[in-house]
Every structure is written in C-alpha cells, then in structure tokens.
Amino acid sequence: MKRAEEWIGKPMDRVDGRLKVTGGARYSADMPVNNVAYGFLITSTIGSGHIREMDTSEAEKLPGVLAILTPFHAPKMPKGSIKAQSSNQQTGSEQSGGQSGTSGAAGGAQQQGGRGSGQQSAHGSQFGQGSTGGQGGGQSGQGGPQSGQGGQSSGQAKRPPDRRIHLLQETDVFYNRQPIGIVVADTLDRAMHAASLVKVRYQPSSPSLSMKGEMHRAYKPKVAGGHQASPDSEQGDLESGWEMAANRTDHTYITPIETHNPLEPHATIAVWEGDRLTLFDATQGIFPARKRIADLFEIPVENLRIVTHFVGGGFGSKGPVWSHVVLTAMAARQVGRPVKLTLSRPQMFGPIGFRGETQQHLRLGARQDGVLSLVEHHGVVQTSVFDEFIESVGIATRMMYACPNIGTTHRAVRLNMGTPSYTRAPGEAPGMYALESAMDELSYKVGMDPIELRLRNYAEVEPESGKPFSSKSLRECYRVGAERFGWSKRTAAPRSMRDGNMLVGYGMATATYPTNRSPASARARLMADGTAIVQSGSQDIGTGTYTVMTQVAADAIGLPPERVQFQLGDTDLPPTPTSGGSQTAASVGSAVLLAGQALRSRLVQLAIGDRQSPLFGMSESEIVAHNGGIFLKSDGRRGEEFTALLARNGLPQLEARVDAAPGDEKTKYAMHSFGAHFVEVRVDPDLGQIRVARYTGVFGAGRILNAKTARNQFMGGITWGISMALMENTLIDPRTGRPMNADLAEYHVPVHADIPALDVTFVDEVDPYVNPVGVKGIGEIGIVGAPAAVANAVYHATGRRIRDLPITLDKLL
C-alpha cells in the first residue's frame, strides 16, 4: 500500500478564508459583549515635562461619561511604577522653565510654565514573562532593576522582555503621545468628545529628539536586542585586516523611524467578573500577556483569560503588553462594566513601539581577488529615556560572510520618544540593508559581479561560532534567482542600461534570519464520529496558522484536513509562545505534530491489543494511518476505520497531549534561513521617480508547510522591504517630538500599483536537525535584504549611491 497521503506542503486554501471574506471572523474589537462601555485614551502633547493639573470638570458634565482616570484619580498599582532611565540626559525634576497656557488635551494642550520638583518615574512591571535580564532593565545608575527571569537555554528562542508602560501612576511626561488618561463613556463618540474637553496644564522641559544631537551621549547597552547577545564582538585583528585590504569601503548608512501600521488597530475589551478578568485583546502573545497582566493586577494567573481568535496583522507591535491594555482593564474594574478601547490611527504612532532610527558605520576591506580581509559594523540606535530597546543591527554581520577579522558594536542614544520595539525582522532588516549595500559598493571597488563577490566569501560554517549550519541553501538561492531573473543580461557599469528615456538598474542582496523555537504544547482529540479537534493556544496573526496547523495535524493523525478542526487563540488551551521571531511554525508545529503522532500511536496500540481488530498482534511499525483509518503497510485491505475501533472499545473519544521543547541542537548547529533578492528598477532621469519593475526572491527555509501561504508571507515581506527602501519615514516635529504624519494619508506605504508581480520561489531544503517538523520560519526573512536590493538597483541605474533611507526623488535630483 502507498504511504499515508501528505498534506504538508500543499497549497491548500486557508481554512479561515471564508470567515474572513464574509465578515464572520471576529477580531478582538468585534467580540459580542453585553453592556459594553467605550474607552478613549488621552495622550500627552509635550515631549518632556510634568503634568501640573488635569481639569476634567467640563468633560464630566457630558451625558454618558462614566469615568475619567488620570494620574490624579487612577487606582494605585504597586507594581505599576519604576524609575526612569536618566543616565545620559536630564528628565523630570532636573529641568525647569517653560511657558504658560491651557487647552484641551485631546486637541492640543498647551504647556505650563515653571518646573516643580519631584521624582520622575515610568510605569511598568518588574516581573518578566520569561524575559532575559537587561533589555527591559536599567543600566547601572539608571533606575529600576532588570526585568525577567534570566537567560534561556541555548536551544530555544529568547523571550521578549516586557516593555515599560505608563499606567497613570505618575505625572511625569517622557514623550509626546504618552498615555496620561482614559475616558470611559456609554458611546465611543461621547468618550472621544469628553477626552477633547480635558484641559491639561504642563510644566514642560526641553525634549531630546535628535539622534545626531545626542550622539555624544551614546552608551553601551548590556545586550543587543531580542537576541540577548553581547553588544560587541571581535574576532581577528581589525586594523591588520584594514591595512592589508587592497579595496576598501567606509560609509555610514541611515534608516529612519518606521511605524507598524497593521490594518487592525490595537484593541482590547476587558470584562471583570468578581476577581476574574477576561480580555479580548489584539495580541501576538496571549500567554506572556496573561502572565504580565495578572502580575500587575496581583491576581492569580488562572483568574485571567485572554482570547484572541484573529489578529489583523501585528508585525511585532502586538508582541509586548502596552499601556492601553492594562488601562482598559483598570477602567473596566473602576466602572463595574465591560470596557472596549480601540486605538485611533494617530495613537498607533508612539505608544505601541516602532522601528527606531539607526546610524550604521561599515568598513569593508578586501584583497585584490575580492576575498574579505575586514568586516566592521558599528551601529548606533535610538531608545527611550525610560526604557531600553536595542535594534541589533550587527548580529547578522557576525555570521554572514567568511572573514578572519570581524567586529561589531552596538550603542544607544536615549531620546524623548516612545520606546522602539520589535518590527518585522528587528535588527536584521536595517542591519542587512547596511551590510548588503556595503557589499554592493565593494563589488564595484573590486570590479567583480555582486553575486561572485558573495560566493567568493561564502561562509561554509558560521564565522562567529565555527559551528556547522544545520542546512544552508544559499548557493542554490543565488543560482536559481539569477536564472529566473535574467541577471546575466546586466551590464556592469552604473547608468549603462536604458529603456527609451528610462534608466534601468539591476540590484541584488542576500537575506538571512535565525531559526527560533520555544516550548509549546498541543492536545489532539479524536471524536467518535471520526473527526479530530486539535488545540494549541497560539494566535494567528494573519500568517495562516489555522491552516498550516490543520495540515500538520491531518498528516500526523492520518485524517483528511476537512475532518480536522484546529483551535487556537485562548489561554484555556495548551500554552504556546509569542508569535514573533518567526517561531510559531517551528514551536507550535512541532507540538501539534507530536501530539497528532501520539494520538495515532494510541490508536494503533488500541488496535494491536484488540483481539477483534484485523490488526491484532501486529507491530506498530507495520501499520500506517490514512484517511481516517489504520492499515497494514503491506496490505491496504487489512485494517479498519478509526470510528469502528473507538465504537468497539466503547470510547466516545481518544486524546493525547504533548509538551514539546527544543533540545541541545543549537549547541551543535548554527540554524538560519537564507535567500536572495533580485530587483529591476526604472528611474526617470529628469524627475527622479523610481518604479520597481520586476522582482525575484528565492529562499531556502526548510520544509514549507503550505506553498500558498508561504508564498504570501514572502510577498508580504518583500513588499514591506520595497516600502522601507522607497517610502517609509515617520516624521517627528523637532520642537515637540510629535509624529507629524501619523495617518495613512501622510505615512506612505505601497499600494498595489507600486508593487509589480513578485516572482517568489523556494528551494527544496531538508533539515533533519532544526525541529521535528523541519521548518525554519518565514514571517520575517522576506524583508531582510530587500531594501538593499532596491538601493543597489537604484545605484546601478543612476550612478548615485543613496545611503539614507528612504530613497526619494529629491535625493536623486
């Protein structure tokens, strides 16, 4: 008999597709809750200072207003306040001065003169959701202790630290749009109107808003971003590598502030029933969120349930717990009824993270034959004055190319802005833009094709650790991509290709992303009617988790997908990690696979021990599960259906649960995905307008669970990479720190007309070491290298190297 049918890898339609296109998919703000009230945030209108007074009297007179919580009226939360970071700039009571005036907080509150004394603080929790020490914690002499529970085992992904959040426990203001109040009313319109009537009097101080202006205060963090790696690394002799180089590049590359803009804004509904809390929340991590929020409210974790059935995009912004989530629960407890809060689009800029500005200085040196003698990468990134997040721009540089002399450093500058946070491929996206741009520049110095230069310096083992790669298909990605794109038609000289009046440029770049995995659990239950319910908490952030887990479970159990129901998005289900770091398929997929296999094994054991079964006395290795039954491998006519087996043994159902976790595989192997981007741009030489005309992306990312949803993920990453190269830039008012383009009219992102048909494919890659399901995760690698490929193509077309993203027409003219 042929082996069991395999659903893994097939381009199966999304199982939740019909719900989404018919409006049946309920996102967090859509959940039906009786007697719900509406919350609306009040946010600060200064970049730094102190709140002297919040006059709520006029707002409280409005009909339907149920409560207005401010730092002067909010319930006290013992774990809701910590010291601000203040190592390298003055904040809080250290400053004085200002001007007077008053107006509504929601509309544009004026600043108040005179700086009072008092100790500044920022809200947050010192307990970790399993975060490693350092990133969320204070530097020496900078205030609060580190959050978290220490380091992770080397075999699992690093858990994200908790962000420090503002819960109305102090009157200090650290950035523009900081949450400083919440209004609750019986309708959303009344809540918004009331918020606009709250008058705020400030004592302002001068905010620090310029990376350039604060570079002299850059400091060395304890760790580099979510990787929790050392901020600095050095191998070999850097100066010797520079001196022996026949060809050199030495340039600085800049990426601006970029803001997540998922289609679904952040939203929370909070429902208290006694001391039990239910949250319907747009989050990428229901279990870490439950742990942190329960700690803040000092309730047992089992008294808090979080439900997230659908997430309309997150891109990292919905990973941490932010202020509005806790404030919604606080307000619901205060008014004694459920409260719903949805952030407005402008409120999505500032208080929920963003990709911070980076300035990266790269020095590359190569011998005359193109072999690298030096790779040096120094990154300076922004963080906030009250917290710390480090965009780990140099991490990929440590493992990308074979070179005897590699050095990386990370430094941070504290600014009066919200805390940067995880944004699709944090660290790798801006870091590989700089490295791959520098490699392109070096290729012109050496006089070598950009692909050949990369192959000349191909790393057969991970340079930093010396460990072998568990699998690496990058050579194949280069070969396949070049063939599909037609790279051989490229002429080497910049500005040498035209189509009519248009300048034509070809560019390429490498992609990479680490393979991550964390502990996860799953339960598989076979019902008497032959259907299966498979459960694993997790969350589907739009990537297709419902679908691919259905496919994994179907194969593991031996059922067709239409007879498998996969349930997720509820903390009542088996626990899973945050959907971030491209780890969901590896973590949850491994748990689902093993749970399904355990259930299938129980079925087989039941049959071979049942004298009435045609498989009685056989060994498990001789039996295959297929299409809802178990049969002999050698004789497909001998076997029985699951339903008959359960019925004969009087079982209404059969269940198996598995807790899966990584082992020591990361101590033995370096685990990364790789890929290659190829892009053609057309540039109008008179107007400077840039159009992406063609795009090819080829990736080696282990086992592909669903060809259709995987291609969709790669296309999404590439689209964002094009956007990063040509469009995205959060503009900050240099006087107040307020985002000036905080809407989708002024914050530019691509529309369909901006993106050509994307040629995306993946090479076959079998990795027996990475995890039980053999996947590497694909949510983030698509964006890595894409901005560099576009920038390199623009240089080839025009002969002008733009090192400051985004590449806009004014920079070309």
Description:
The chain has 813 residues and is α+β, with helices and mostly antiparallel strands. It folds into 3 domains: 17-26 and 518-661, 2-Layer Sandwich (Aldehyde Oxidoreductase, domain 4); 31-150 and 157-207 and 263-313 and 318-348, Aldehyde Oxidoreductase, domain 4 (2-Layer Sandwich), CATH 3.30.365; 213-258 and 354-516 and 667-812, Aldehyde oxidase/xanthine dehydrogenase, molybdopterin binding domain (Aldehyde Oxidoreductase, domain 4, 2-Layer Sandwich), CATH 3.30.365.10. The strands form 7 sheets. The chain has a 7-stranded mixed sheet with strand order 3-8-1-15-12-13-14, with helices on both faces. A hairpin with a 4-residue loop joins strand 21 and strand 22. The longest helix has 25 residues, at 584-608. It starts with 16 loop residues before the first helix and ends with a helix.
Structure summarized in a few sentences:
By secondary structure, the chain is α+β, with helices and mostly antiparallel strands. The chain has three domains: 17-26 and 518-661, Aldehyde oxidase/xanthine dehydrogenase, molybdopterin binding domain (Aldehyde Oxidoreductase, domain 4), CATH 3.30.365; 31-150 and 157-207 and 263-313 and 318-348, Aldehyde Oxidoreductase, domain 4, CATH 3.30.365; 213-258 and 354-516 and 667-812, Aldehyde Oxidoreductase, domain 4 (2-Layer Sandwich), CATH 3.30.365.10. It starts with 16 loop residues before the first helix and ends with a helix.
